[in-house]
Write a structure and sequence with these properties.
It contains 9 helices and 6 strands, in the order E-H-H-H-H-H-E-H-E-H-E-H-E-E-H. Helix 6 links the parallel strand 2 and strand 3.
């Protein structure tokens, strides 16, 4: 493999959480008086840390979300995860092959550490990740599309950015990877290719990923 580190986004790449979390987010914002469709949520918030929700609502309406917004949103999402969440099809086989080939990998997610770990425990992916290769936007000052999170992950893993490859399914994530000076491949299982412009390549089945990275 021509890369020394594979950096995975979490939501939508490792765990199939985007339909669940964006349905809940859209419903909660609408409940609070900020009409938001599922499609709106995907467009505006997919791949972003929760502070982006606060920022956009503030910019658009001049209003602040409730103080317990994050807590309530996470509680609703985690409850839905327990009922519905599954790993992305084929990702366990990819991780198994990386381990067998001794290729380092990590996750760098806009989600909180708690969200990452809840999702991994629910789907069994916790068998493939340890504390030292889990990175969250909580660890840095700015989330995606800023490059900070990916650069932090690379530094902690001891690999130069140009030797890293990112696997992403969101526009903000692709932008962050490019800004970090990393190659990025766009996973198009639920995100149209045109929304991931700038990626080095695209794939819609996890079974295709390792071949792209060789």
């Amino acid at each position: 493999m021509r890369y020394e580190l594979v950096v995975f986004d979490n939501d939508g790449v490792l765990v199939d959480s985007e339909p669940i979390s964006n349905t809940i987010l859209a419903g909660y914002l609408t409940e609070l008086g900020h009409p938001t469709s599922y499609e709106d949520s995907l467009r505006d918030y997919m791949g972003a840390a929760v502070h982006r929700v606060h920022d956009l609502i503030g910019e658009r309406t001049g209003q602040r979300l409730p103080l317990d917004f994050d807590e309530t949103l996470h509680a609703r999402v985690f409850a839905a995860f327990a009922r519905e969440l599954e790993a992305v099809a084929g990702i366990a086989d990819v991780l198994k092959q990386l381990v067998e080939d001794k290729v380092p990998y990590c996750v760098a997610s806009s989600g909180s550490h708690e969200r990452i770990r809840v999702g991994h425990r629910t789907t069994g992916l916790d068998a493939w990740f340890r504390d030292e290769n889990i990175f969250s936007a909580e660890d840095v000052g700015r989330g995606k599309p800023a490059p900070d999170l990916f650069l932090h992950a690379a530094a902690r893993m001891g690999v130069a950015p140009e030797r890293c490859v990112v696997v992403e399914d969101s526009r903000l994530g692709v932008q962050a990877a490019i800004a970090a000076g990393m190659d990025v491949y766009g996973f198009t299982a639920m995100t149209p290719k045109e929304r991931l412009a700038g990626a080095r390549g695209y794939f819609d089945d996890m079974g295709e990923l390792l071949g792209l990275l060789e």
